[in-house]
Amino acid sequence: MKKETSIAVGMGIVFGLIFSFLVIVNTQKNQSVSQKTPAQKNRPVKTQQQTIVQPILISEPNDSVIVGEASVKIKGKTDKNSFVVIQSQIKDISFTTKTEEFEYTIPLSLGENIIHISAYPRGVAGKVQEKELRVYYLDSK
Amino acid sequence: MKISEKIFISLMCTGLLITPVLALEATGSATPAEEKGVKQLREKIASKVEEMRKKDQRAYGGLITKIEDSTVVISNNQGADEKKYTIKIDDTLTTIYRILGTTKKEIKKSDLKVGDYLIVTGLMLNDNLEANEVYIDEQFLVKTAKITEISKSDYYLKVITYDKDEYILDIQSSTRQFMLNTKTKEIERAGFSSIKEGDSIHFVVSKTNPGEGKEKNRYDAVRVLVIPQEFSAQ
């Protein structure tokens, strides 16, 4: 046998071995995928949840309203179980909403009162909802 | 016409004439209790009418930018939404007060100066306000923000609001500091050392009295309420 012939036969054997090795590895991979149970195949993929947060709605009082008493009732609506902070220049009030609606009476100082209402919805990080009102307590006496 | 019909008609006419007279007599002889009831009812109606009238009444606030003979221009100073109003002050009809804590003191128009924060009530027509009452008041800022930097040596907090406005809050010994206890959900007094970057902060500052020598958007905090970051993440 000539020298060239023996080199060609040797290379053929080497390539054949490499090819068969690749085929075996690939087949094993496919088998492991197909061996997964139907439940495993149908498992939902964990994706980023898109939570819709209800903005704060204030039904009472109107913005820039004039009142003649040293307190005002705040009536509004936000997500259930939200942590609500009602803040003015003289008082902070905080509570957790049991239903979507909330109602709280806050004291007023004479003149302009900026009332800032924030709601932290439960389980939604960084989604603070805000509303600001101005209420004018102008004693007519 | 028969006699019986004539008698019937004359009785009807007599009845019609007598009834109002009797009614008048009855009104005149109302008991003191009835009079008191009527008075209370009148007062209730009057207060309800006043309440309904006031429900739709609004006031306008802003900083004085210009003072002329009988007018004052105020600006609500709210950035892009800035609105200017011309206030017409009538020496005989407009009353001007200065608010001092829980009381107010009547002052003169000459006491007004550029930069004062005014609250004005009256009739608005095309951004011109015929003033009934004018009050000089302290202007506050009440906001919610995120703490971005804490200086433990100089006792200040850098914060950014959800509208992307940045402020520096100097925590003074007079600043009232509160923090939410995340376990009990009660608001408790807190110290500066317990505040962390990333916490939410509800703050009150006085724009009228920001503190001595302050740069723009830097104030002495009047009151702060801190909501720890771990609570927002719950």
UniProtKB/TrEMBL annotation, chain A:
Matching InterPro entries, A to Z?
A: Ig-like_fold (IPR013783)
> Per the UniProt record, which residue ranges are transmembrane?
6-25
Superkingdom of origin: Bacteria
Q: Which UniProt keywords apply?
A: Membrane, Transmembrane, Transmembrane helix
- Protein name, as recorded: Bacterial spore germination immunoglobulin-like domain-containing protein
TrEMBL record, chain B:
Entry keyword Signal: yes
Task: Please indicate which superkingdom the organism of origin belongs to.
Answer: Bacteria
Leader sequence range is 1-23
Q: Does the keyword Signal apply?
A: yes
What are the alphabetically sorted keywords of the record? Signal
The protein, known as:
DUF5666 domain-containing protein
What species is this protein from? Candidatus Roizmanbacteria bacterium CG11_big_fil_rev_8_21_14_0_20_37_16
